[in-house]
UniProtKB/TrEMBL annotation, chains A, B, C:
Organism of provenance: Tauraco erythrolophus (Red-crested turaco)
Gene Ontology terms: biological process: copper ion import; iron ion transport
Bilayer topology: Multi-pass membrane protein
Cofactor entry: heme b; FAD
PANTHER family xrefs: DUDULIN-RELATED, METALLOREDUCTASE STEAP4
Pfam hit, one: F420_oxidored
Protein name (database record): Metalloreductase STEAP4
Amino acid sequence: MKKNSSNTMALAPNTSNKRETVCIFGTGDFGRALGHKMIQSGYPVVFGSRSTQTSPLIPKDAEVLSHAEAAQKAAIIIIAIQRQHYNFLTPLAEILHGKVLVDVSNNLKINQYPESNAEYLAQLVPGAKVVKAFNTVSAWALQSGTLDASRQVFVCGDDMEAKQMVMDIVRALGLTPLDQGSLLAAQEIENYPLQLFPMWKFPIFLSLGLTAFFFFYSLTRDVIYPYVYEKEDFSFFIAISIPNRICPVLALILLALVYLPGVFAAIIQLYRGTKYRRFPDWLDKWMLCRKQLGLVALAFASLHVLYTLVIPIRSFVRWRTSNQIVSQALNNVTESLNITNAWLSDSYLALGILGFFLFVLLGITSLPSVSNNVNWREFRFVQSKLGYLTLILCTAHTLVYGGNRFLSPSSYRWYLPNTYMLSLIIPCIVLVVKFVLILPCLDKPLTRIRQGWERNPQYSE
Amino acid sequence: MKKNSSNTMALAPNTSNKRETVCIFGTGDFGRALGHKMIQSGYPVVFGSRSTQTSPLIPKDAEVLSHAEAAQKAAIIIIAIQRQHYNFLTPLAEILHGKVLVDVSNNLKINQYPESNAEYLAQLVPGAKVVKAFNTVSAWALQSGTLDASRQVFVCGDDMEAKQMVMDIVRALGLTPLDQGSLLAAQEIENYPLQLFPMWKFPIFLSLGLTAFFFFYSLTRDVIYPYVYEKEDFSFFIAISIPNRICPVLALILLALVYLPGVFAAIIQLYRGTKYRRFPDWLDKWMLCRKQLGLVALAFASLHVLYTLVIPIRSFVRWRTSNQIVSQALNNVTESLNITNAWLSDSYLALGILGFFLFVLLGITSLPSVSNNVNWREFRFVQSKLGYLTLILCTAHTLVYGGNRFLSPSSYRWYLPNTYMLSLIIPCIVLVVKFVLILPCLDKPLTRIRQGWERNPQYSE
Amino acid sequence: MKKNSSNTMALAPNTSNKRETVCIFGTGDFGRALGHKMIQSGYPVVFGSRSTQTSPLIPKDAEVLSHAEAAQKAAIIIIAIQRQHYNFLTPLAEILHGKVLVDVSNNLKINQYPESNAEYLAQLVPGAKVVKAFNTVSAWALQSGTLDASRQVFVCGDDMEAKQMVMDIVRALGLTPLDQGSLLAAQEIENYPLQLFPMWKFPIFLSLGLTAFFFFYSLTRDVIYPYVYEKEDFSFFIAISIPNRICPVLALILLALVYLPGVFAAIIQLYRGTKYRRFPDWLDKWMLCRKQLGLVALAFASLHVLYTLVIPIRSFVRWRTSNQIVSQALNNVTESLNITNAWLSDSYLALGILGFFLFVLLGITSLPSVSNNVNWREFRFVQSKLGYLTLILCTAHTLVYGGNRFLSPSSYRWYLPNTYMLSLIIPCIVLVVKFVLILPCLDKPLTRIRQGWERNPQYSE
């Protein structure tokens, strides 16, 4: 800007100073909230409504006109109306020609209609440039100013310039626009606010299934078996003892499942001799939810830690301990320290502590604000090197916990092995295969494949 | 950009290539730091100073001129001078006419002057376009490059274009501008850096008050009472036992206070039959500090967990345990397991663990970077569904802990009930009222009211 | 935008609607991934390649031409080729004149070449405007859309307008451009993806060194000494007991080292009587890694907490406890409660809990998303006030733990004092000096110096 123009502008502040007028069709909650926020941000706002009576709820500085009149006042029209009423726009097609129509609507169900609301709008008013935006923002959040949840506004549309205009408004309102491409993306954007943790579904259902299985498994071994054979009532094991068998088992299995797909992928790439063919669909999906699997595993590990640490203050444990000591005293016995036991006990505890510590570290680095501050090399170092170290420590923790009980027949009740033996299967497979894969004879070709080399190049470049 | 223009530009790189010169009035710490950063980002900088001698502290690439000369060189002038010296700008009014003046000043106290510094500046130099910015940034952070605290720069001003120019500079310096509206917002922006956790004041003072009350209450019951009646010195309870009574009580009460205002709001909306009337002021304020209340509750819950887990390694507890066992042994007694006690003990521990686990989950999702990555449905699911589940688990934990002690007269010393009984009052009220509110006969009208329906519509649309 | 122009535009949507064509030299992994992402974001893409046969791997909507033809189609050319092949650009110098060349290359080692790749490119094609960008982004992340690690794209270049054009593309791809200044910054930007936690190196090596020292120190005192004199095998102490001596000691020492440089800085400023002279280099570096030092200290403190809480479930501890109780019972002894011991035990536990709690709070506020939401006053309050309180609590925890053992000769084995005595040296120095520094006679001049006052002003302003 040159000084002259700057001075001129100051003399006539009202010419270039203004933002573009924005028109809002619909005076419902969302329309009003958006209008209010826009006026705050310096946009002149005109509402288009069936009745032009202003209500006290409509922001004072806004004009209320008929739809046709309001539309003529602005280049951008926000359609804050439900999809089923879009028909009324058809007669206005003439006036809306060339305008930017912003579809802010949401549906009640995922994929409720065959085409997205925004595409439907574009069909109804073919002359207009439709942009999808603002549907992820809540009216309440706009009004109260407490944007605790997302400040992100997904924007899509076929017209680049129209999209840019809408993104400028989004930015002016203090929100973050994210360009999602052409209007085809509208379906996905409309489904977004209806989603409930879609990436978490598989890990959570998997862990619920495994939890149910291991619950009944442990119930059989630890409650029903002693009740049948020894007439002892250990039903209260349901509260702590059994959960504390399930949690470590699930934590270990899920952690191993985080690293299993990477091992599969390496084997497939080695077998195919190229990295330029897509993985099977199930493997792709599995790889994309590894972070969620890992976090669910961390949740089970944390519960295991808490369940373990309360052991000494459980009424049952205090009763058992004091009974043991009393009977020792009555029998006049003083045991000497069993060094092997001391070693086993201390080392499985230490391995568990270190494994859990690294696990929490992995969890912290997966926080968005932390992972956004590391480069790729650091991210891979943490998620791969530290991740495998965690898996090794946790597997060793379980192995040492088992100690010499693996071969003891008393570990098998009704031929059922202890749960921790079952939990070791997948981690051990992952670790063994990974160990084989880092042998130079396999690691070298794998690295070359990953750098783009192909055994049977199909495409000359 | 077309290729031609691109080529032309390359031939004469110095014409369009430069950024606008920026003038800075004042060569103090902040002025120099800002100048230095601007030069790094490609802005030619000219300082306006009383004395035009350059000092070694002023960035080398900057020019130092008299105020009048410097002002003429730039369209944007940053006033890095304290408010009490603003008077010297009056004689420069002519030269400053039409310029953008950026007020970067801060005060020493909240609301120190009747009008904000920026508004005062706008009165002194009526022809200039005043923009408030940069006051939240520290000189030290600018210079050292370690912007550990906020990168956010609040900007406000009456002139849209001037504000835009300043926001472009903010962005070029690698900071994030946040448009706060007209110059009226300057007062708030100037108060911002002087604030010390304003949203946390109410939760912290409330919890300090409750802590003091429950401290003296427990002191009376647990230390003074046994001293008076049994001449026993339990003064060391002050270190762990009494804090471990206060923490769970406060955690539960504060958690219930997070959900109480929502219950009030629902009752008010049902009674009024509309959502379009403002809540009383105290309710509004209460609802806005729910997150902080919840996090303080989580802090107390975490302390409770730590205090509980160290119980077995307390010297007093080890003494009590070994004395009990010794006397058992001396009396030749072997107790049999009390299944009811085992159940009570294990289930209150399990409920506590699960409640705390969900509580921590709520805490993690309230981290800004996490809550920014979920949509509204997910945010509400976590904060409302999981939140109520946490409250139910924690209340049940306390109820089961009490067990059959509620009616035992030994629980009442000097007619004072146990602290945990007091802590149950508010949570139980919240849960009962919430349960009534989700009965269909109340939930249906409430949902309709929240969707905009009114029992006695006052405003025709 | 005026309504007229908006309508006109709609009639001829294909003129102004398009984004600028982007040319990409090189059809390797990164070039293809970037091309794919750009097409998604609405950019027409043309590849320049040695062979113009299209391969199925190249995005369908992209054209593949010879280098010369492709270059003529766009103003921006992305050089997705390795540095060693840059020579082929020399003959194209004519065509590339005035174009924006984007260097996206990375090296295999830090400072591999004397000049950065981008500067080398600028020397090879002097007529072009070279911009460094995109080198921190991974091809895999671009393709899969899972930008888990950084979305930040560092951009630098000598031509402001060229840089702006590239930054617009970065933004359109949904990434965050960070302007790093002139092309001189390219070296640093190219080194960035090769770095592995550079700020963490000093704290981690320091703590590894201290860990090794204290490990052998404790080994001597706790394993070798009793083995030599009492023939007892305590080798299993290596698993838990010795780590649990090392962790608290390191946590305390590292925490004190966080506050030591601030104390040094204050003394230097007081001595010099000015803040306008640079600190010695070692002090500057030390001050910049305080956050990392503190987080490593927190890691050790967390391990100490876990190691301490598992004490009661260690096999050795249960053996020792039951043996003590059995021998008490056999000797018919009932001990009375030692109030002093109860006080000491409970208060060092309580101090430790509170210290650890504040320490975790400090850790949480150092998360980027949290520290970005507080102002400077709040940040300083937490990091300085709460930090010193943490240091005081942790030092007191160690002092009380020692209790009356300091003077007991049994604490010295082979004249080696207990590790916790060594750990107290630095924290006590820091606290004593800090206490002296906040005495008014020193605090007042220090505050004035920090506000800019100089004892012997060297530079008149």
